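Whiteboard transcription, Tuesday session. T.W. wrote the structure tokens on the left side:
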């Protein structure tokens, strides 16, 4: 075995063979693991040997929970095609190595980007975290690289076709795995130095790959504000050129449980402001240790419910300004998609462009009340070979009798981060090549071309 040839330590390697059609759980894992270790002892492994656990995909979530509970008996955890969930790496009691393919269609690169962000923040105070918990991202590799042809059909369809040579990728992963074990067990100073160099380099590589995703995530929401809604309000104002400097915008993201606030106009320090409020809706939280839907679950927010101010009220407030253009929610959603496209890496754009599908931004659904607007989600569905995106808008008359509710313009917006997840994962999965109809809760379908009437 290649791992034994690379590693200077003597290794005993066993594969936990769960019975057919039996899902690995916290109930049966201890029994199965005991049987495996007992078999190794009978084969000659000494009782006090150091134990490392490795798990692939869905099994990784169960094994990580078990490892955290039994950390006194386990020296390290290796996650293949999955990542730690439910607890932070920094506080995890044993070292964790995460090895994931850049084109893993199940463990989305957008999910790995969250791990990178968390590690980056932790490393600011504790640089050793990237060495104790190394992250290895395999260029051009997918979820199935670790199991050959062993993926079930449903998972195979959700995966992405690999671009890298499987043998070369696995050999590189094995070298890193050997360094992880040697570094954890402190076999030698030379091994520790080599591991430090390799793991820092590997983490920097993951940072570079996920940087476009993380930057767009901060655009959607960061520090209880949304820079994207700030930009949307600027466009919606209709102000252009020098007149666009007459109004500053501050956009706050509200938390659940707080009553929605209407946007407002005001002056502070001689500067005129528009203050907007938004809700960001995320997919429902999934119990990754139990759910079988982890492979299909989105990580990006589903929509931004943006409460903004219409151009007529702004024009009346500023006096002597011109509404250069009347924008709609459709225009703002088109801009969101194009922002994601141009922020994505060149390599990601190339993959995306090779898939011949279409995206169509439909005219807004205009509703008659704020309650109806709040309860109607952004419409996203795949019809045939087209992805249709439809914004939901609600507007009030610019009538002084409406007081603070005059001249409002509410939009259900496509988060740029969600569009980015389509580009990096959903649109290039194997199942994305199939035409058909998918409900609005799905992000299936692929796009590279735009209909002429979609220009903003």
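and on the right, the sequence the group agreed on:
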């Amino acid at each position: 075995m290649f791992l034994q040839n690379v590693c200077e330590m003597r290794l005993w390697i066993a594969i936990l063979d769960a019975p057919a059609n039996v899902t690995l759980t916290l109930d049966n894992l201890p029994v199965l693991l005991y049987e495996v270790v007992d078999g190794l002892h009978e084969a000659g492994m000494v009782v006090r040997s150091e134990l490392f656990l490795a798990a692939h995909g869905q099994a990784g979530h169960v094994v990580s929970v078990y490892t955290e509970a039994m950390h006194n008996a386990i020296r390290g955890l290796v996650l293949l095609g999955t990542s730690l969930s439910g607890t932070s790496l920094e506080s995890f009691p044993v070292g964790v190595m995460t090895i994931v393919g850049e084109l893993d269609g199940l463990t989305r690169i957008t999910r790995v980007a969250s791990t990178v962000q968390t590690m980056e923040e932790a490393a600011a105070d504790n640089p050793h975290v990237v060495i104790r918990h190394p992250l290895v991202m395999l260029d051009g590799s997918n979820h199935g690289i670790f199991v050959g042809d062993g993926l079930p059909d449903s998972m195979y369809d959700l995966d992405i076709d690999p671009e890298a040579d499987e043998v070369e990728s696995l050999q590189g992963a094995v070298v890193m795995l050997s360094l992880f074990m040697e570094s954890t067990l402190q076999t030698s100073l030379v091994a520790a130095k080599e591991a430090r160099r390799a793991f820092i380099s590997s983490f920097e590589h993951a940072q570079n790959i996920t940087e476009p995703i993380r930057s767009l995530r901060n655009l959607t929401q960061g520090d209880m504000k949304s820079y994207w809604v700030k930009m949307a309000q600027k466009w919606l104002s209709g102000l252009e050129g020098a007149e666009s400097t007459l109004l500053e915008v501050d956009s706050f993201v509200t938390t659940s449980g707080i009553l929605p606030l209407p946007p407002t106009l005001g002056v502070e320090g001689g500067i005129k402001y528009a203050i907007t409020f938004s809700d960001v809706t995320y997919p429902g939280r999934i119990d990754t240790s139990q759910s079988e839907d982890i492979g299909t679950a989105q990580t990006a927010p589903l929509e931004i419910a943006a409460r903004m101010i219409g151009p007529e009220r702004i024009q009346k407030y500023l006096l002597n300004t011109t509404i250069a253009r009347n924008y709609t929610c459709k225009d703002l959603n088109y801009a969101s998609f194009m922002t994601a496209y141009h922020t994505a890496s060149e390599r990601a754009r190339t993959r995306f462009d090779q898939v011949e599908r279409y995206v169509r931004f439909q005219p807004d659904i205009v509703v008659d009340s704020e309650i109806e607007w709040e309860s109607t989600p952004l419409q996203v569905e795949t019809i045939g070979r087209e992805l249709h995106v439809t914004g939901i808008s609600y507007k009030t008359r610019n009538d002084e009798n409406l007081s603070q509710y005059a001249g409002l313009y509410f939009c259900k917006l496509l988060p740029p981060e969600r569009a980015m997840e389509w580009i990096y994962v959903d649109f290039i999965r194997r199942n994305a090549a199939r035409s058909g109809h998918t409900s609005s809760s799905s992000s299936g379908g692929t796009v590279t071309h735009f209909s002429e009437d979609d220009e903003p």
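Someone added at the bottom: The first helix runs from residue 2 to 6.
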